Amino acid sequence: MSKQRKVPLRKCVVSQEMVPKKSLIRVVKTKDGEIFVDPTGKKNGRGAYLSRDVDIIKKAEQTKALDRQLDIAIPSEIYQQLIAEVEGN
Hints:
Residues 10-83 form the YlxR domain. This is YlxR domain-containing protein. The protein has helices spanning 54-63, 65-70, 76-88; strands spanning 9-11, 18-20, 24-29, 35-38, 46-51. The protein is an alpha+beta fold and 89 residues long. Strand 3 and strand 4 form a beta hairpin. It has a single domain (9-88), classed as YlxR-like (Hypothetical Cytosolic Protein, Chain: A), CATH 3.30.1230. It has a three-stranded antiparallel beta sheet with strand order 4-3-5. Helix 1 packs antiparallel against helix 3 (76-88).
């Protein structure tokens, strides 16, 4: 009997749901204050996760959930990238 691998769970900053990391998109803030979308989920920096749902991403922009989570103003281009990432997948 093989041991079942534990699925890493992360919390969406908007819905507050714990879901498998693979079903979320990670936004990263580096030490230099750079913000970018991290589709691999492996880049260095402070990460915040969002569900792969256009409505959730729009809500994050309206409520500034990512801004609070990463303690920096998130440019609208990041939200556009997130929406493109969700629609492209």
